[in-house]
Amino acid sequence: MPLPSLKHYNYDDLDGSCGCALCNHYRHAVKAYEAYIQGKSSHVWSCTCAECKTRMKIYEEVLLSSLKRETYSELSFLCENHPDKGPFLAWVWRATQYPDGHRRTFSRAWWLDRGAKVPLGWWLRKWKMLSGVDIINDLMKKGP
Ligand SMILES: [Zn+2]
Ligand SMILES: [Zn+2]
């Protein structure tokens, strides 16, 4: 799978024409969810019948794919003008692509639980620990 564009943050373009794996995953998940709920009786959100359990499973895929896509997109926006963004974004991209069960960090469960809560700065700090490149400091020096 090729790396998505390093300028991956114009959502009009992304929704319309981006063919990267993050956008494809998201588009597929939304379509599958829309197809599933089509014509279904409307149970309350907290309902736990078998049909609603299936619905939640399918909805989880929308959440998961949207989280991954937004994380990558927002970080690509934040680092747009940083000279070392390439290796950083490649690492973030890999973090979205680990098969479940491969690693505890960046697994499906990780994304749905922690991934939904960590701020963008967390990714930059983690990258500094891994690579020594302090993107967050460079961004702050430049100011807004
Ligand atoms: Zn994309
Ligand atoms: Zn139900």
Work out the radius of gyration: 17 Å
Number of helices: 7
* Shape category: elongated
What is the total tally of β strands? 0
First-to-last CA distance: 34 Å
* Main sheet overview: none
Number of individual domains: 1
Could you provide a short overview of the structure?
The protein is mainly alpha-helical and 144 residues long.
Q: What does it look like?
A:
It is built from seven helices and no strands. The chain has 144 residues and is mainly α. Helix content is 64%, strand content 0%. One zinc ion binds at residues 4, 8, 14, 18, 20, 22-23. One zinc ion (ZN) is lined by residues 43, 47, 49, 51-52.
Question: Notable features of this structure?
Answer:
mainly alpha, 64% helix, binds zinc ion, 144 residues
Itemize the secondary structure elements and their pairings:
Elements: H1 11-17, H2 21-37, H3 50-78, H4 85-95, H5 108-115, H6 120-131, H7 135-142
The structure holds zinc ion (2 copies).
